[in-house]
Amino acid sequence: MAKKQYAFYPGCSSQKKASADNFLRSIDVVCQKLDVQLNEIPDWNCCGASIGYGEGGELPRLVISARNLALAEKNLPGQDMVSVCPACWLATREAGERLHESDSLLAEANEALREAGLDLKNEVKSRHFVEVLIEDVGFEVMQQQVVKPLEGLKLAGYVGCQTNRPFGIVGESFENPRYLDKMVEMVGAQPMETYDQKVTCCGGALAFSEPEKSQKQIRDIVESAYDHGADMIVTPCQLCQANVEIYQSEINKKQGTRFNMPVVYYTQLMTIAYGGSATEAGLDGQFIRAEKLEKLAGK
Fold it and tell me: How far is CA 288 from CA 224, 228, 239, in A?
Protein backbone atom coordinates (compact mmCIF):
# COMPACT_ATOMS: atom_id res chain seq x y z
CA MET A 1 0.00 0.00 0.00
CA ALA A 2 1.39 3.40 -0.99
CA LYS A 3 2.17 5.69 1.90
CA LYS A 4 0.05 8.79 2.38
CA GLN A 5 2.47 11.74 2.25
CA TYR A 6 2.09 15.00 4.15
CA ALA A 7 4.18 18.11 4.79
CA PHE A 8 4.71 17.91 8.53
CA TYR A 9 4.80 20.93 10.81
CA PRO A 10 5.76 19.59 14.27
CA GLY A 11 5.61 22.93 16.06
CA CYS A 12 7.80 23.99 18.96
CA SER A 13 6.47 21.69 21.69
CA SER A 14 6.33 18.49 19.61
CA GLN A 15 9.75 18.68 18.01
CA LYS A 16 12.40 16.23 19.18
CA LYS A 17 13.60 16.78 22.76
CA ALA A 18 10.93 19.42 23.41
CA SER A 19 8.22 19.34 26.10
CA ALA A 20 5.88 17.06 24.11
CA ASP A 21 8.59 14.86 22.58
CA ASN A 22 6.74 11.84 23.98
CA PHE A 23 3.70 12.79 21.88
CA LEU A 24 5.90 12.77 18.77
CA ARG A 25 7.21 9.30 19.62
CA SER A 26 3.71 7.87 19.76
CA ILE A 27 2.78 9.68 16.54
CA ASP A 28 5.73 8.01 14.81
CA VAL A 29 4.44 4.56 15.80
CA VAL A 30 0.90 5.34 14.65
CA CYS A 31 2.19 6.59 11.29
CA GLN A 32 4.27 3.46 10.75
CA LYS A 33 1.27 1.23 11.42
CA LEU A 34 -1.08 3.23 9.18
CA ASP A 35 1.29 3.86 6.23
CA VAL A 36 1.32 7.60 6.84
CA GLN A 37 4.52 9.52 6.11
CA LEU A 38 5.04 12.91 7.71
CA ASN A 39 7.78 14.81 5.85
CA GLU A 40 9.13 17.55 8.10
CA ILE A 41 9.11 20.99 6.50
CA PRO A 42 12.72 22.21 6.23
CA ASP A 43 13.66 25.25 8.33
CA TRP A 44 10.14 25.73 9.73
CA ASN A 45 9.59 28.45 12.33
CA CYS A 46 7.33 28.97 15.34
CA CYS A 47 3.74 29.73 14.31
CA GLY A 48 3.62 32.62 16.77
CA ALA A 49 0.55 31.31 18.58
CA SER A 50 1.87 32.43 21.96
CA ILE A 51 3.00 35.90 20.86
CA GLY A 52 1.21 36.57 17.57
CA TYR A 53 -1.59 38.60 19.12
CA GLY A 54 0.79 41.03 20.83
CA GLU A 55 1.55 44.50 19.57
CA GLY A 56 3.03 43.51 16.22
CA GLY A 57 -0.19 43.80 14.22
CA GLU A 58 -2.02 41.51 11.83
CA LEU A 59 0.47 41.32 8.96
CA PRO A 60 3.50 40.16 11.00
CA ARG A 61 1.32 37.56 12.74
CA LEU A 62 0.09 36.16 9.44
CA VAL A 63 3.51 36.27 7.77
CA ILE A 64 4.98 34.09 10.53
CA SER A 65 2.66 31.26 9.47
CA ALA A 66 2.77 32.22 5.78
CA ARG A 67 6.50 31.49 5.79
CA ASN A 68 5.81 27.89 6.87
CA LEU A 69 3.16 27.54 4.17
CA ALA A 70 5.58 28.91 1.57
CA LEU A 71 8.29 26.49 2.70
CA ALA A 72 5.83 23.59 2.38
CA GLU A 73 4.86 24.71 -1.14
CA LYS A 74 8.48 25.04 -2.19
CA ASN A 75 9.93 21.87 -0.66
CA LEU A 76 6.98 19.47 -0.51
CA PRO A 77 4.72 20.47 -3.42
CA GLY A 78 1.25 18.98 -3.55
CA GLN A 79 1.27 17.81 0.07
CA ASP A 80 -1.20 19.04 2.69
CA MET A 81 0.47 20.70 5.67
CA VAL A 82 -0.28 18.72 8.83
CA SER A 83 0.06 19.96 12.41
CA VAL A 84 -0.32 17.90 15.56
CA CYS A 85 -0.69 20.99 17.77
CA PRO A 86 -4.12 22.68 17.82
CA ALA A 87 -2.58 26.14 18.32
CA CYS A 88 -0.26 25.64 15.32
CA TRP A 89 -3.16 24.35 13.25
CA LEU A 90 -5.33 27.35 14.14
CA ALA A 91 -2.57 29.86 13.40
CA THR A 92 -1.67 28.27 10.08
CA ARG A 93 -5.21 27.71 8.93
CA GLU A 94 -6.24 31.23 9.88
CA ALA A 95 -3.28 32.66 7.96
CA GLY A 96 -4.14 30.65 4.87
CA GLU A 97 -7.79 31.67 4.96
CA ARG A 98 -7.13 35.34 5.68
CA LEU A 99 -4.60 35.56 2.82
CA HIS A 100 -6.99 33.72 0.51
CA GLU A 101 -9.73 36.25 1.28
CA SER A 102 -7.60 39.32 0.54
CA ASP A 103 -5.41 39.78 -2.55
CA SER A 104 -3.90 42.94 -1.06
CA LEU A 105 -2.99 41.17 2.18
CA LEU A 106 -1.42 38.29 0.23
CA ALA A 107 0.58 40.79 -1.82
CA GLU A 108 1.85 42.45 1.37
CA ALA A 109 2.74 39.06 2.87
CA ASN A 110 4.66 38.11 -0.26
CA GLU A 111 6.54 41.39 -0.17
CA ALA A 112 7.81 40.38 3.26
CA LEU A 113 8.44 36.76 2.23
CA ARG A 114 10.53 37.81 -0.76
CA GLU A 115 13.11 39.13 1.70
CA ALA A 116 13.59 35.47 2.65
CA GLY A 117 13.57 34.29 -0.96
CA LEU A 118 10.05 32.88 -0.76
CA ASP A 119 6.80 33.40 -2.65
CA LEU A 120 3.45 32.11 -1.45
CA LYS A 121 0.82 30.95 -3.92
CA ASN A 122 -1.32 29.92 -0.93
CA GLU A 123 -2.32 26.57 -2.39
CA VAL A 124 -1.38 24.44 0.64
CA LYS A 125 -4.22 23.05 2.74
CA SER A 126 -3.63 23.26 6.50
CA ARG A 127 -4.90 20.24 8.43
CA HIS A 128 -4.83 18.76 11.91
CA PHE A 129 -3.43 15.24 12.33
CA VAL A 130 -6.81 14.15 13.71
CA GLU A 131 -8.39 15.17 10.39
CA VAL A 132 -5.89 13.01 8.51
CA LEU A 133 -6.63 10.00 10.70
CA ILE A 134 -10.40 10.36 10.46
CA GLU A 135 -10.82 11.55 6.86
CA ASP A 136 -7.91 9.92 5.01
CA VAL A 137 -7.36 6.74 7.03
CA GLY A 138 -10.75 6.13 8.64
CA PHE A 139 -11.89 4.47 11.85
CA GLU A 140 -12.26 1.05 10.22
CA VAL A 141 -8.65 0.93 9.02
CA MET A 142 -7.37 2.33 12.31
CA GLN A 143 -9.26 -0.33 14.24
CA GLN A 144 -7.87 -3.11 12.06
CA GLN A 145 -4.41 -2.44 13.49
CA VAL A 146 -5.51 -3.08 17.09
CA VAL A 147 -3.82 -6.20 18.47
CA LYS A 148 -4.06 -5.39 22.17
CA PRO A 149 -7.48 -3.90 23.03
CA LEU A 150 -7.36 -1.61 26.06
CA GLU A 151 -10.12 -3.50 27.81
CA GLY A 152 -11.22 -2.29 31.21
CA LEU A 153 -9.74 1.18 30.77
CA LYS A 154 -12.13 4.10 31.34
CA LEU A 155 -11.26 7.40 29.72
CA ALA A 156 -12.57 10.95 29.85
CA GLY A 157 -12.13 12.44 26.38
CA TYR A 158 -10.96 16.02 26.89
CA VAL A 159 -11.05 17.75 23.50
CA GLY A 160 -10.34 21.23 24.85
CA CYS A 161 -11.19 24.42 23.00
CA GLN A 162 -8.61 24.95 20.24
CA THR A 163 -9.22 21.68 18.39
CA ASN A 164 -12.92 22.43 18.61
CA ARG A 165 -13.29 26.13 17.79
CA PRO A 166 -13.46 28.14 15.60
CA PHE A 167 -12.85 25.49 12.94
CA GLY A 168 -13.44 22.11 14.57
CA ILE A 169 -13.47 18.71 12.92
CA VAL A 170 -15.87 18.45 9.97
CA GLY A 171 -19.16 16.80 10.91
CA GLU A 172 -18.62 17.16 14.65
CA SER A 173 -20.73 19.13 17.11
CA PHE A 174 -19.03 22.12 18.70
CA GLU A 175 -20.82 21.44 22.00
CA ASN A 176 -20.32 17.68 22.10
CA PRO A 177 -17.71 16.42 19.61
CA ARG A 178 -17.66 12.63 19.50
CA TYR A 179 -14.47 11.82 17.61
CA LEU A 180 -12.30 11.37 20.71
CA ASP A 181 -14.89 9.07 22.27
CA LYS A 182 -14.90 7.06 19.02
CA MET A 183 -11.11 6.78 19.15
CA VAL A 184 -11.34 5.48 22.71
CA GLU A 185 -13.92 2.90 21.62
CA MET A 186 -11.76 2.02 18.60
CA VAL A 187 -8.86 0.92 20.82
CA GLY A 188 -11.17 -1.17 23.02
CA ALA A 189 -11.45 1.18 26.01
CA GLN A 190 -14.58 2.74 27.50
CA PRO A 191 -15.29 6.44 26.89
CA MET A 192 -17.03 8.51 29.55
CA GLU A 193 -19.67 9.77 27.11
CA THR A 194 -21.40 12.03 29.64
CA TYR A 195 -18.15 13.75 30.64
CA ASP A 196 -19.27 17.37 30.87
CA GLN A 197 -15.90 19.15 30.61
CA LYS A 198 -14.76 17.86 27.23
CA VAL A 199 -14.72 21.27 25.50
CA THR A 200 -13.86 23.47 28.50
CA CYS A 201 -10.79 25.66 28.09
CA CYS A 202 -7.90 24.62 30.37
CA GLY A 203 -7.07 28.29 30.91
CA GLY A 204 -3.74 27.91 29.15
CA ALA A 205 -3.45 31.58 28.29
CA LEU A 206 -3.98 32.49 31.97
CA ALA A 207 -1.60 29.97 33.54
CA PHE A 208 1.02 32.63 34.36
CA SER A 209 -0.92 35.90 34.34
CA GLU A 210 -3.97 34.74 36.33
CA PRO A 211 -3.15 31.29 37.75
CA GLU A 212 -6.16 31.14 40.08
CA LYS A 213 -8.55 31.38 37.13
CA SER A 214 -6.62 28.79 35.14
CA GLN A 215 -6.44 26.40 38.08
CA LYS A 216 -10.18 26.75 38.66
CA GLN A 217 -10.69 25.50 35.09
CA ILE A 218 -8.26 22.64 35.59
CA ARG A 219 -9.89 21.60 38.85
CA ASP A 220 -13.28 21.36 37.13
CA ILE A 221 -11.79 19.28 34.30
CA VAL A 222 -10.08 16.82 36.64
CA GLU A 223 -12.88 16.67 39.21
CA SER A 224 -15.42 15.80 36.52
CA ALA A 225 -13.19 13.00 35.25
CA TYR A 226 -13.10 11.52 38.77
CA ASP A 227 -16.86 11.99 39.17
CA HIS A 228 -17.45 10.02 35.97
CA GLY A 229 -15.24 7.14 37.09
CA ALA A 230 -12.44 7.73 34.61
CA ASP A 231 -9.03 6.11 35.05
CA MET A 232 -7.38 8.88 33.07
CA ILE A 233 -7.98 11.82 30.75
CA VAL A 234 -7.12 11.66 27.03
CA THR A 235 -6.56 14.76 24.90
CA PRO A 236 -5.35 15.84 21.43
CA CYS A 237 -3.69 19.04 22.70
CA GLN A 238 -0.17 19.53 24.09
CA LEU A 239 -1.08 22.62 26.10
CA CYS A 240 -4.14 20.93 27.59
CA GLN A 241 -2.08 17.86 28.45
CA ALA A 242 0.64 19.88 30.17
CA ASN A 243 -1.68 22.23 32.07
CA VAL A 244 -4.15 19.62 33.28
CA GLU A 245 -1.41 17.19 34.33
CA ILE A 246 1.23 19.47 35.84
CA TYR A 247 -0.98 21.87 37.81
CA GLN A 248 -2.77 19.11 39.72
CA SER A 249 0.04 19.13 42.31
CA GLU A 250 -0.26 22.90 42.69
CA ILE A 251 -4.02 22.62 43.20
CA ASN A 252 -3.44 19.87 45.76
CA LYS A 253 -1.09 22.12 47.75
CA LYS A 254 -3.39 25.13 47.66
CA GLN A 255 -6.78 23.47 48.06
CA GLY A 256 -6.12 20.25 49.95
CA THR A 257 -7.25 17.99 47.11
CA ARG A 258 -5.55 14.69 46.28
CA PHE A 259 -5.66 14.74 42.49
CA ASN A 260 -3.45 12.23 40.70
CA MET A 261 -5.22 11.84 37.37
CA PRO A 262 -2.99 10.82 34.41
CA VAL A 263 -3.46 12.84 31.21
CA VAL A 264 -2.41 11.10 27.98
CA TYR A 265 -2.55 11.67 24.22
CA TYR A 266 -4.85 9.72 21.90
CA THR A 267 -1.81 8.48 19.94
CA GLN A 268 -0.37 6.97 23.12
CA LEU A 269 -3.52 4.88 23.45
CA MET A 270 -3.26 3.86 19.80
CA THR A 271 0.42 2.94 20.16
CA ILE A 272 -0.25 0.56 23.04
CA ALA A 273 -3.32 -0.90 21.31
CA TYR A 274 -1.19 -1.43 18.19
CA GLY A 275 1.26 -3.54 20.20
CA GLY A 276 3.81 -0.84 21.01
CA SER A 277 5.76 -0.67 24.25
CA ALA A 278 5.32 1.89 27.02
CA THR A 279 8.55 3.56 25.87
CA GLU A 280 7.41 3.68 22.24
CA ALA A 281 4.19 5.30 23.45
CA GLY A 282 6.20 7.90 25.36
CA LEU A 283 4.67 6.96 28.69
CA ASP A 284 8.04 7.60 30.31
CA GLY A 285 7.43 11.29 29.59
CA GLN A 286 4.37 11.56 31.84
CA PHE A 287 4.48 13.74 34.94
CA ILE A 288 1.71 11.63 36.50
CA ARG A 289 2.36 8.04 35.52
CA ALA A 290 -0.38 6.30 33.56
CA GLU A 291 0.11 3.07 35.50
CA LYS A 292 -2.93 1.23 34.16
CA LEU A 293 -1.88 1.94 30.59
CA GLU A 294 1.69 0.90 31.39
CA LYS A 295 0.36 -2.37 32.79
CA LEU A 296 -1.62 -3.05 29.62
CA ALA A 297 1.49 -2.28 27.55
CA GLY A 298 3.42 -4.91 29.49
CA LYS A 299 0.96 -7.71 28.90
Answer: 18, 19, 15
Domain residue ranges in the chain: 4-130, 147-297
- Give the span between the Cα atoms of 111 and 221, in whole angstroms: 45
Same fold, 4-130 and 147-297: no
Please say whether the beta carbons of 287 and 245 come within 8 A: yes
Single pTM value for the model: 0.94
CATH number for 147-297 (one of 3.20.110.20, 3.40.109.10, 3.20.20.80, 3.40.50.11810): it is 3.40.50.11810
The proportion of the chain whose per-residue pLDDT surpasses 90, expressed as a percent, equals 82
Query: 11, 24 in Cβ contact below 8 A?
Result: no
| DSSP 8-state assignment for residue 3 | P
Neighbours of 193 (CB within 10 A): 14
The CATH number that domain 4-130 falls under is 1.20.1050.140
What pLDDT, in 10s, does the model give residues 163-211?
Answer: 887 777 888 788 889 999 999 999 999 999 999 999 999 988 788 889 9
CB-count exposure of residue 249 (10 Å: 0-12, 13-18, 19+)? middle
The pLDDT tens digits of the residues spanning 92-106 come to 999 999 999 999 999
Which residue from 70, 67, 123, 61 is spatially nearest to 94, judged by alpha carbons? 61
Nearest CA among 12, 31, 93, 85 for reference residue 238: 85
- Which H or E run contains 158? none
